[in-house]
Amino acid sequence: MAVRIGTSAGEYEWADGWAKIPPTQSLTDGWSHHGVVVTDNDEVIAFHPGDPEMLVFDLDGNLLRSWSTDLKDAHGMALAKDSSGQYLWTSDPGAKRAPEIDYEYGAGPRAGKVVKWSLDGKDVLRLERPDHPAYKDGEYSPTSVTVFEEASDGNGDIWSSDGYGQSLIHRYDKSGNYLSTIDGTEGSGGRFDCPHGVWVDYRKSEPELYVADRANSQIQVYDLEGQWKRAFGSDWLTTPSAFAISGDLMIVAELQARLTVIDGDDNLVGYLGSDDDVPSREGWPNVKSGDELPRRPETLSEGKFNSPHGVAADKNGNLYVPEWLIGGRFTKLVKV
After folding, report:
1. What is the separation of C-alpha 98 from the centre of its chain, rounded to a whole number of angstroms?
2. What kind and span of H or E run contains 124?
3. What is the chain's Cα-based Rg?
4. What CA–CA distance (Å, rounded) separates 264 from 251?
């Protein structure tokens, strides 16, 4: 019998291993650290844990196609529509833990990048690192991207979070020209510390920019001109990392072993798949071997998350959750 998890807002059946990824050595050894999206055509796009390959699945987890990239990781992923169709956006921090160097990061500067792709894998636009004083000596390592999409009456502005670099969020116009930067000091939420995820929320009459201010254990909210509006969640969030919308609810992937469900007024509804103990495990999100190197856990609990890194929702309210660990875990939560 399938494991069920839920909150007062609904229940889900846990479908572990639903995505049919070819079982290669690079899948087994790669350290998964990516996002996920679901297109208007009901295709689920994710990134391979070990190879620089974009993977496209149907809703049942069958691999439809893939394409090679020059990314270290499609760490943050987003979709946006304009008059010519729907496009995929990816943020690449420019570095990835590699098994051949004992899961350390490679030496040298990070080649961070933000890339717009057609859904058949064509490279459409790349955003330049902004000309900002923080990069005179500091690394640029973007973790997320979102677009104020024209199909939703937006202006096409692009918001990119440098979560692993200088903890800044940069705004570009739809052609990729740098416009401005926010850093959290605009309001009482305080200076960002690892703004890991950004998301344009269209649930209200005026769309808003949500920021997963992860190391500060809060969400900060701006208007689409970069004016600060509010911060919330510091008393019930731990590690907000990524966003999805399912109906009227916001689903937040929290790296420390749960999804958090939030209503339209920024109130906590509940948690999905929470495991309060696993983040304190030695070597989390993996385990330490006898030689002190990280290894994938031999077992992962069904019905409980280990380290959710991304989240997406389809039209039926099903959720898709990639986790951050060696070999990855890609779970589908089927709405009951």
Report:
1. 20
2. strand 123-127
3. 18
4. 11
Residue 135 placed within a domain: yes
| Strands 158-162, 10-15: pairing kind | unpaired
Res 97: pLDDT: 94
Question: What's the confidence (pLDDT) of residue 1?
Answer: 65
Residue 230 has pLDDT above 70, yes or no: yes
Q: How far apart are CA 150 and CA 264, in angstroms?
A: 23
User: CA-CA distance, 65 to 67, in Å (whole number)?
Assistant: 7
Structure tokens at 318: 């099903």
- Say how many domains are in the chain: 1
Looking at residue 46, what is its pLDDT?
98
- How many angstroms separate the CA atoms of 25 and 134, rounded? 39
Q: Which two tokens stand for residue 187?
A: 């309001």
Residue 127: the pLDDT is 96
Domain that holds residue 200: 4-258+269-295+308-314+321-335
Do the Cβ atoms of 297 and 288 come closer than 8 Å?
no
Helix (H) or strand (E) holding 26: helix 25-29
Determine whether 189 is exposed, middle or buried from the number of CB atoms within 10 Å of its CB (0-12, 13-18, 19+).
buried
Report the CATH number at residue 108: 2.120.10.30
**pLDDT tens column, 97-138:** 999 999 999 888 898 999 999 999 999 999 989 999 999 999
Tell me if 297 sits within 8 A of 314, measured CB to CB.
no
**302 in any annotated domain:** no
